[in-house]
Design a protein that fits this description.
Bound molecules: uridine-5'-diphosphate
Helix content: 25-40%
Largest sheet: 5 strands, mixed
Strand order of the largest sheet: 1-2-3-5-4
Shape: globular
Structural class: alpha+beta
Radius of gyration: 17 Å
Length: about 230
């Protein structure tokens, strides 16, 4: 039993909603446990300055940020090395799903803001961003679902909290997944595990992604399908 009472293969409680920012072309809110993210998408829109344009495809730009009040110790609002790295990771996780070649010379801008952080913010950002891209009507191969799995002491667990991430030893593996295509679009590993353990962690992460996928689809349908 984990300290928050979950089983090893259990996700935290999830809330998901699309269309939360009226001025954006697409937007979404995604909360998993005490990690909450809002995402806003603008585009495809003409990219300026022109020398940044790609005549073959749209340029996907992702901006990850944490609000100053998202963690107990005030977070500086200026993006540091971590934010730049996570923005790149989020871009890599999302790019395979978008038909970027359909929108040459444009930019698609994806902003994710962490409102509350209790680990798993890059994965929550990917979940929110892919819902916001769909809400913006951008042609996509699939939604991207993401969650971390890992090893805390000797246990393989799904969806780690900050308390679990801070436990020694801990290995954290964020995974982003496109269920239709069965493509893993992001996998990172912080810590040490055997090849066999890693296989088990990936399997568990994908199982978590599939559950998140259903919640993402339900949130989108809630806005667009009249039942
Ligand atoms: N965190 C923090 N202050 C920071 C950055 C991170 O308290 O400046 C916490 C926050 O809870 C975050 C966690 O550390 O979710 C883990 O951060 P990490 O860089 O591993 O990324 P994440 O797991 O959020 O994707």
């Amino acid at each position: 039993m984990r300290s928050d009472g979950r089983k090893n293969d259990e996700l935290r409680k999830i809330e998901a909603k699309v269309g939360v920012i009226s001025s954006a072309d697409g937007s979404a809110y995604f909360k998993i446990g005490n990690t909450a993210v809002v995402a806003a998408v603008y585009g495809p829109r003409e990219l300026h300055p022109k020398h940044l344009q790609d005549p073959e495809k749209s340029v996907l730009r992702c901006y990850y940020n944490m609000t100053t009040f998202s963690v107990p110790e005030r977070k500086s609002p200026s993006p540091g090395r971590r934010e730049i790295e996570l923005s790149t990771a989020i871009k890599r996780a999302l790019e395979p799903t978008i038909f970027i070649e359909e929108f040459p010379r444009t930019a698609i801008d994806v902003y994710t803001y962490v409102l509350e952080a209790d680990a798993g913010t890059r994965c929550a950002s990917i979940c929110a961003a892919s819902m916001a891209l769909a809400d913006a009507g951008i042609p996509m191969r699939d939604l991207v679902s993401a969650v971390a799995a890992g090893k805390v002491k000797d246990q393989i667990v799904l969806d780690l909290t900050k308390e679990e991430e801070d436990t020694e030893p801990c290995t954290d593996v964020p995974i982003a997944y496109m269920p239709n295509k069965k493509w893993i679009t992001l996998i990172q590993l912080d810590g040490e595990v055997t090849a066999e353990e890693l296989r088990e962690i990936i399997k568990l992460g994908i199982k978590g992604c599939l559950q998140i996928y259903e919640i993402q689809k339900k949130a989108l349908k809630k806005k667009y399908v009249r039942i």
